[in-house]
Write a structure and sequence with these properties.
The complex is a heterodimer. Chain A is α/β, with parallel strands linked by helices. Chain A contains 15 helices and 16 strands. Chain B is elongated, with a radius of gyration of 21 Å. Classes of the chains: A alpha/beta, B alpha+beta.
Chain lengths: 519, 180
């Protein structure tokens, strides 16, 4: 191969000739002071709130405070390069983030730059990070289930596509684990998952990514990472960026054109892990911008900070492509105090919460869901009928069990009926336990809950419940897979199907008792 | 920063107190000259800011300066007010702020043209009329020279910059070629 010098100079000449001479027009201001990631700028009279600013050395800024004689802006980038007297240019655009299918499987920062060393990402569109949520007319009610694959959640706290369900609990109670299991369970369903890590350790983020890779869930997932070492403004915009990328999949069909009745939008799952850290970084920015502090030193608009983000979770009408964004915000509480400022705010914004408790976690009930305090306000409509029918009994029996359990601690001589209820309750609690990274299909969840509420476990010891569950799945898979098929296709449990189920389960139980030597 | 806000409040009050356009113009020149003197002469500055000097003495000094220049009576009262409030140190900024308010009210905008080589008077004239046509306001033109621009001109009107300099053109050509 030979490269001619002539050719190169010809190409260069073409480029220079093709260069259009034009006057570069810009509105500029001057930096009066800079520090703590905040700049005060004189000039820029026509700047918009939230507008992207261009500073020297490729540093970007965002105008947040428009005052009488100056503009307060946060800097997104290396702030040590910026000096007093530097020139700041308006960009005329609100902050945007690139989005596209090429992002699936990638780890990016909130500005869309890759962090995983797998090369540049080709964006299909630029999405504004702040956007007014879809209005009433553009939406439809939440009716499709978003399966988490966790028995305790899918049965009693069902989540629908387009819902916002808060995951709340102390540190180390398995909040992230619930979210990760949900992402793993979306494998093969066409749901795009976006995991936004805010203020976490780099090592934790790396661990999440490697877990997702190990379970093959990274192919449908985008990780937006603003670690603890990122500047506060990046941590503050990270959830909005994640949501904006999600909106690309929701608003645009597979061919990259705006979604409509023929060109369907995708279902998206956004996990914001966690919003208490985002609120803290917003507090930092606000205090540095000298906005007045309010309760717990948060600024006055910290409610709006979260409500405008979570309001963007939606299920669009079929005319608009039927895409959805399901939001799973995570909030960390201190010593189980859900009545602190940020937790109460986010609880009131979301359509329900999954409350995880340390005491339950340490007593071996994992996922450590506190069934009494957890609710889902809209997910019930999204549950498939079969699950609804078995979960109703489950919920009732568990509630009765909790009541009796507290009461039964005082005395030992209880009547037969009470004892039966107690032992049923213990078995229900036992079968709701589930290992991490092992989401279950909804048919199998129905099977195990049906066997527990139908009394198939009552004459087994508690220790045998786990073995029963595992072997039952195997047995049904091998000899009665038609049962699973019919639950899946019809979605409900009619009497005929119930009879068939009962038959299969009794058959299995005989076999189980024989192999384990139970009389 | 804080001074600017403060100064513009005082200046706005002074400006609004005067109705006669001629008086406004006179006060504009006077306040600027006064600010300039305070900046240049340490004695005057010390005298005005020294708390050991009685307020009445300071007022008397400012009154006599105002009288000598035959200022409208509001000026004297205004200067007394500034001393009374202990804001003598912002007087130079008040002068500047007043000037800005005055120019704005007269429909004058400040423009600055930076070139690599000095411009001829005829060119300045043409630039002035072009800018006046563009902004439809009166333009107060300032010219400066910066050889680093290599060629062309950078024009600044208010906070908008029109950069037609050779330096910026070359820079963007370089960026465009290195990107491709």
């Amino acid at each position: 191969m030979e490269i001619k010098v002539d050719e190169i100079s010809k190409i260069l000449r073409q480029q220079i000739e093709g260069f259009e001479r034009q006057v570069d027009t810009a509105e500029v201001g001057t930096i009066i002071s800079v520090g703590d990631g905040i700049a005060r700028i004189y000039g820029l009279e026509k700047v918009m709130a939230g507008e992207l600013l261009e500073l020297p050395h490729g540093v970007a800024g965002m105008a947040l405070n428009l005052e009488e004689d100056s503009v307060g802006a946060v800097l997104l980038g290396d702030t040590t390069l910026i000096k007093e007297g530097d020139q700041v240019r308006r960009s005329g655009r609100i902050m945007q983030v690139p989005a596209g299918k090429a992002m699936l499987g990638r780890v990016i920062d909130p500005l869309g730059n890759p962090l995983d060393g797998k090369g540049p990402i080709e964006a299909q569109a630029q999405m504004p990070i702040e956007r007014i949520a879809p209005g009433v007319v553009e939406r439809q009610p939440v009716t499709e289930p978003m399966q988490t694959g966790l028995k305790a959640i899918d049965s009693m706290i069902p989540i629908g596509r387009g819902q916002r369900e808060l995951i709340i609990g102390d540190r180390q109670t398995g909040k992230t684990a619930v979210a990760i299991d949900t992402i793993i369970n979306q494998k093969g369903t066409g749901v795009v998952c976006i995991y936004v890590a805010i203020g976490q350790k780099q090592s934790t983020i790396a661990q999440v990514v490697s877990t997702l890779e190990e379970y093959g869930a990274m192919e449908h997932t985008i990780v937006v990472a603003a670690s603890a070492s990122s500047p506060a403004p990046l941590q503050f915009i990270a959830p909005y960026c994640g949501c904006a990328i999600g909106e690309f999949f929701q608003f645009y069909g597979d061919n990259g054109q705006p979604a409509n009745a023929e060109n369907k939008g995708r279902a998206v799952l956004c996990v914001y892990d966690d919003l208490s850290k985002q609120a803290a970084s917003y507090r930092e920015i606000s205090l540095l911008l000298r906005r007045p502090p309010g309760r717990e030193a948060y600024p006055g608009d910290v409610f709006f900070l979260h409500s405008r983000l979570l309001e963007r979770a939606s299920k669009l009408s079929d005319k608009n492509g039927g895409g959805s964004i399901t939001a799973l915000p995570i909030i960390e509480t201190q010593a189980g105090d859900i009545s602190a400022y940020i937790p109460t705010n986010v609880i009131s914004i979301t359509d329900g919460q999954i409350f995880l408790e340390g005491d339950l976690f340490y007593s071996g009930i994992r996922p450590a869901v506190n069934v009494g305090l957890s609710v889902s306000r809209v997910g019930g409509n999204a549950q498939i009928k079969g699950m609804k029918s078995v979960a109703g009994t489950l919920r009732l029996e568990l509630a009765q069990f909790r009541e009796l359990e507290a009461f039964a601690q005082f005395g030992s001589d209880l009547d037969k009926a009470t004892q039966a209820q107690l032992s049923r309750g213990r078995r229900l609690v036992e079968i709701l336990k589930q290992d991490q990274y092992s989401p279950l299909s909804v048919e199998k969840q129905i099977l195990i809950i049906f066997s527990a509420t139908g009394g198939f476990l009552d004459d087994l010891e508690l220790e045998h419940c786990r073995a029963y569950e595992l072997e039952m799945y195997q047995y049904i898979d091998q000899s009665h897979s038609d049962l699973l098929d019919s639950i899946r296709s019809s979605g409900k449990l009619d009497d005929a199907l119930k009879d068939r189920l009962k038959g299969a389960l009794s058959e299995f139980k005989e076999q189980f008792k024989a192999t384990h030597g139970i009389a | 920063m804080k001074d600017r806000k403060l100064a513009s409040r005082y200046a706005r009050a002074m400006f609004d107190a005067l109705q006669d356009p001629a008086a406004r113009e006179k006060v504009d020149a006077f306040l600027n000259a006064l600010g300039e003197s305070i900046r240049q002469s340490p004695e005057l500055r010390d005298f005005l800011l020294d708390p050991a000097v009685a307020r009445d003495d300071r007022k008397k000094l400012l009154s006599s300066i105002a009288e000598r220049h035959a200022m409208p009576p509001e000026t004297e009262r205004f200067l007394h007010l500034v001393i009374e409030q202990g804001r003598a140190e912002v007087l130079p900024s008040i002068g500047q702020a007043y000037h800005e308010i005055y120019e704005e009210s007269m429909g004058v905008v400040a423009a600055e043209i930076t070139t690599a080589v000095p411009m001829s008077d005829e060119m300045k004239q043409r630039a002035q009329s072009a800018l006046e046509k563009m902004t439809s306001k009166r333009v107060r033109l300032q010219c400066s020279i910066e050889p680093e621009l290599i060629g062309g001109a950078v024009t600044r009107v208010g906070s908008t910059i029109y950069d037609g300099s050779l330096r910026t053109q070359l820079e963007s050509l370089r960026r465009q070629m290195s990107e491709e």
